[in-house]
Automatic annotation (TrEMBL):
Belongs to the MS5 protein family. This is SULFUR DEFICIENCY-INDUCED 1-like. SMART domains: TPR. The keyword Acyltransferase does not apply. It comes from Olea europaea subsp. europaea.
Length: 233
């Protein structure tokens, strides 16, 4: 019913319907109802309510009460079913939470949450949004470093035409900022040659410059624990 109301652009009524009748639904249905509410809040611009519900979903995962105690759950998108892990769900929720903070203009909080989401399950879309948050704070070199990571590691989603266009648009904005920025594509030093004797040295020097060691990922729930104070705003 709520989905039909949403399609009819009766979002406020749909929200009230879910709130009124969710008490009659079984425990297993509550997570799906939360997801419906989040979509409805997003559609009608209720950002604060969206943030509150996303934090609630994170807390449920942290307490081990989500997924009905299972490591994965079955999700549906565009009529297709697929399996989602706890790790993927946490990254998805964090991405939505960071987006909500960004809509409120709280770019510092959004940056913090996007970085945590990227540590768990990095992708190009979240990286672009993180870049946007950094640019809004005037931190252009850090924003460029985020885009450089997208190009260097070919993060998931990079092959999507829309995502690549977004990367190029952000890069253009960075260039227009007037900040001196290095190229995203690596250039070999002129003094290096590719003779067999020194090829290993060449490779090592290039990797040291363009492929720095990535930060070690912390256990998922330790990250969520650290986020509780940062997101309590």
């Amino acid at each position: 019913m709520a989905v039909v109301m949403k399609q009819l652009d009766r979002t406020e009524e749909a929200i009230e319907a879910v709130k009124s009748f969710r008490g009659l639904c079984p425990k297993q249905a509550q997570e799906s109802l939360d997801n419906i509410l989040i979509d409805l809040y997003k559609k009608c611009g209720k950002v604060d309510e969206q943030i509150m519900l996303l934090k609630h979903k994170l807390r449920m995962i942290y307490l081990g009460e989500a997924f009905n105690g299972k490591p994965t759950k079955t999700a549906r998108s565009h009529g297709k079913k697929f399996q989602v892990s706890v790790k993927q769900e946490i990254a998805r929720i964090l991405g939505n939470l960071a987006w909500a903070y960004m809509q409120k203009g709280n770019y510092i909080a959004s940056e913090v949450v996007y970085r945590k989401a990227q540590m768990i399950d990095p992708d190009t879309n979240k990286a672009c949004n993180l870049c946007h948050c950094l640019m809004k704070q005037g931190r252009y070199e850090e924003a460029h470093a985020v885009l450089q990571e997208v190009w260097q590691y070919k993060l998931p989603g990079f092959d999507d035409l829309k995502s690549r266009n977004r990367v190029e648009e952000l890069l253009l904005e960075l260039q227009e900022s007037g900040m001196p920025l290095p190229s995203l594509m690596p250039n070999l030093p002129e003094d290096l040659t590719f003779d067999d004797d020194d090829f290993v040295e060449v490779l090592e020097r290039v990797m040291n410059e363009w492929a720095p060691a990535r930060s070690r990922r912390l256990p998922i729930f330790e990250q969520i624990s650290q986020l509780r104070d940062q997101m309590a705003r």
